[in-house]
Structure formats: structure tokens, C-alpha cells
Amino acid sequence: MPELLGVGVGTGAAVGTAVVLAPAARPPADEPADPGAGPRVREAFAAVAATLRERAEAAGGTTAEVLQATALMAADPGLLAVVDARLAAGAGPATAVDQAVEQFCDVLAASGPYLAERVTDLRDVRDRVVARVLGLPEPGVPQLVEPSVIVARDLAPADTAALDLSLVVGIVTELGGPTSHTAIIAAQFDIPCLVRVAGALGVAAGTPLALDARAGTLVPDPSAELREQVAARRAARLALAAGAGGPGRTADGTTVQLLANVGTLEDAERAAAQDVEGVGLFRTEVLFLDRTSAPTLSEQTDAYARVFAAFGARKVVVRTLDAGADKPLAFVEVAPEENPALGVRGLRTARRHPELLQTQLQALAAAAKQTGTHPWVMAPMVSTPAEAADFARAARAVGLETVGAMVEVPAAALRARQLVAAGLDFVSLGTNDLTQYAMAADRLEGDLADLLDPWQPAVLQLVEATGQVHVPVGVCGEAARDPLLALVLVGLGVRSLSMAPAAVPAVRFALARTHLEACRAMANAALGADSPQQAREFAARFADPDVLAL
Amino acid sequence: MSNPTATRTAVVASRVGLHARPASLFVQAAAATGLPVTIAVGDGDAVDARSILMVMGLGAQHGDQVTLTAEGEGAEAALDQLVTLVETDHDA
Questions:
Q1: In whole angstroms, how far apart are CA A65 and each of A52, A71, A160?
Q2: Is the pLDDT score of A179 beyond 70?
């Protein structure tokens, strides 16, 4: 199989065995009747039931009970009887399974809300049985037994939750973009990742794969030489992580804070144990998602206090609720929007629900007081000085002292000076959204991955505009974890970089090898480019060879 | 001589009704008797008690009366055991 190309996330490389997450197989529309298929179909059901029982035994706890009940469904005599009837009536085998399952799904759905999850489980049984009947691999996440490269159309959050990440050395998807869910997970755990790899699902399970996120290549059956190269790069990266630590600074001593992006409380506690100077982006929306009502004041206070306590005297930058668009909240009523990314999201949510922001600010202030810490607080999606002023007033009114705003909208970048004059102590560039809005390209639209590249000179120009202000300027976004781009950002005036903690050592190393003047030269060169590729090339001319090898 | 047929009634004790875990336990016990066992809610149609989908599909709620029927050697003893299961609140 020839080499495949994709869009790299991060700069890592890995070798592992392909584990293919097959999409659910559907019965063919014109499946011919096969009245004699009964025994074969029963065998498929029995095999699926047996697998589920095995998993139940291995799982334990609540998961075991759910799997046990699902196994019962896969061996259900009532279901098998309906499948037989459908087969006798002339349906093809996979079609008969599908029809029988849907019949029971209707019955269950009609029997009340308790059974909604069982409908999901039953359809999962259906997908497994249909796959077996059609002679295709079972869908879903297989149990990993060796260092694996996960190959999927795209990874759903549920898939990622089921993966044993300690055995995942790489992720390859056909769809998704550099800022998709998959890419964010990969960044979080510093797993080399390629998205937009056309034909990836054609890779046979078990094939050895070498993936190189920096080059954007996926090589099936790599040569011994390539394997060695990748292994050497991995070892060099690990050595870096084990090597120099401490605060970030350029070769000539300019300090650049190296901070962590965190979502959940567990993330935060994990990050606190790492060699980072604090948190540059605490995404509080995780507390709000998947809930039917807003978390209460005391619930929020406890959560924030845990994070603040974990970091003690280190800096923690909290972003207030960033909801809307791709992060809808169940308890916030939103009128249907034509373009949610251009709609009521981020700080704009407070226009309709000021109480949500008010409660959150109070909880942050209470948690700060309780832990004796001084969090920095910033609002997402600020576009005008008036919005910045309103937010700053509301935050200071409850006693929060250090107030800032995210720069994610070109208007905010171009008018950063005016935003600051409206009463801000700092600004933080969210490069993912800033790129989306500068290039008018939806973050989740993988087909537009080239436009979503943070090396786009137009995006760098907006960073430059923001970098002129006289308060601290940070970057929290995917851009910060690319060592070369991090140097360009510093050259543009950025003095703190926030990223997945795993990416910090490489960026620290790049900074330590580079003078501020070289960062500025890289930035100027990149600004003069016509494309992201050219910007990278131009910047690389001023870089230390060891940095380029990262 | 025909097989003995036994019939019992029971009141569903589980707060969630015969769903999820209670249904799962009941169906497994019914299958373990090795006898054909049926269950009906009130005056409704009897369904195969060894089918978790049929049993959940009954929508038997907490406090509903169900009728159990079994046929064959040991039917009485089998039903005694199943009645006890239905009348236990497994979520307590």
C-alpha cells in the first residue's frame, strides 16, 4: 500500500499496529431473500452475546450490569423469533435483523424514558450482528493489546472514552480537522495525529504503520530504516521532557510563561503535577456541558477551589462560560440560529442569561477567597470595548482583581488597544477561533483544513496587532504547541503560551535555543509570506537546527 | 397426562418497574428454570418471560400486578422463586 497524506496535528511521529474502527455496516438496500439463513443469523447473535458476556466479566461494577443486560438482548428468544418471521417473509438476513431490532426499539421507546438507553444498547447489538452476518468487522472500539495506531472515519467522544490511551501511540482519521475533537484529545495526551487522510479506512487491521504528524504522512509497512528514524525522534522528545525544566525563557533571558490548557478538574490536578508555570486556559464549560440544569453557586465554588488549590501560588487563568455553537447547553434555550458560530455564543450568552455569568463570577470570587489565591479571569468572544468594559465591571464588582478578555474575533485583535483601555489587565489570543473568523472557515469543516492553518499570514498579522498592547498578551490555542510557531508568536509580542502540558518540554527547548531577536526575525519573515507553507519555510530559515528537528 | 400448569400473581416492587436491572435479573431467573414461563401485566397479553425485550416492552411499573404462568415439572417451585424476585425492590 502506498504512502497516504493527511494534515498533521502536532509534530510527533510514531510506529504502531493499525487498529481500524469500522463504521457501522448497514444492510444492503437490495439484499436478496435467503430463507435458509436462520442458523447463520442465530450463530451471529450467539457470538455477539458471548463477546458481551466476556466483556461483562472483565468489566465489573455498573458497566458489567449494562453489558450483561445487553448480552441478554443479543440472546433474546423474542427477538430471534421476530428475525425468523422476517426471514420467512422474504427479507434478506441483515435486513431481517435490522427490521426485528427496529420493531423492538419502537416498543421500548413507547414504554417510557427509562428505556431510551436500552434502545441505544439494542442498536449496538444490531450493528454487531449485522456486521457479522455481512462478514464485516464489528464496529466500535476493540480492546487494545499492543501499541496501536487508531484508524477511524472520525472519533466520537464515546469512542475516545472507551480507548485505552496508554496503548494508543497514534491516531489517524479520514475526516475531522486540526481543531476537531479528535485533534484536541490527541494534543491533550501528546499523541501524534493525522486528520483528513483520504483512504485511511482502506488500511487493513494489523498493518504496521509509521505516522509522521510533521510531514503529514502515513506509511504502511514501514522499512526498518524508517522505524528506526521514528524511534529516534520519539526518544529525543522523551529525553527533552526528562531534561531541562523550569520557567520558559529565550536564550537571552526574556521570560515566556509556559502554561497548561485544562478542561476537567482531573485535567487540572494532573497538570498541577507537571512542570508548568500554571494554567493559561481553564475551560469552565466542561462543568456545564451534559447537564440538564446549571451547576449551583456552591457546586461551582467547590470545583474552582479545587483547581485553585491544586496550583497554589501559580497563575491560573479562568475563562468564563464559553457556550453556544459547537458547545450547546441543555438548560439554555437558544432560538435556532442560521450560523451558530456567528451567533449567541461565548460572552454573548450573557446578553440573554446574565444570571449564568453572574453566578459564575461570584463562585470564582468565593473560590479565590476560600483558597487565598488570585485567579485571572477572562471572557470568551469579546468583540468590542463596550463588551470588555461590561465584563470588567461585573468581575471587579464581585472582587475579582485581574480581568481580561480572549481575542478570538478579528475586531478584537485590530482594536486590542481600545479593549485594554476599556479596563482590561491582560488579553489572551484564542488562535483556533481567531483563525476560523479571520479565514471565514468553520473550525469543524475538515475540508477547509488548509484555511484553518494557524500559520496563515493573515492570522499572524492579527496576532501582531494584538501584540502591540502594553498589558500581558498570551496565546491559548493549538498554535502554541508547535515549537517553531511558538517562537514566531513570541516574536510578535506574546509572553505566555498555554497548551497541553505534554507539549511544554519541546516549546521550552525551542525557546531556550533562540534569542528574542531571532524570534522577531522569524515573525517578520512569516508575515511576509503568501501561504502557511511559505510562512513556515521563511521562519525556519532563522531557526536553530535542533529546534527544526523536534 | 398433561404437564402441570401453575399460575401466580405478584406486585412489582422495584421503583423503576420491571426495567433495567430488575428485568435483567427476572429474565435470567426465568430462563434458568428451564421451563416455558410467561408474564402478563393486568389483563394484558402474556409474553415470554425469558425475553428481556418482551418483558421490558410490557412497561410494568412499580405497583403493577403481574401474572406469571409456568408449565412442566417443578412449575410451582419455579414460580415461588420468580414471585419473590418480582416482589423485591432491587434498587433499594
A1: 11, 10, 21
A2: no
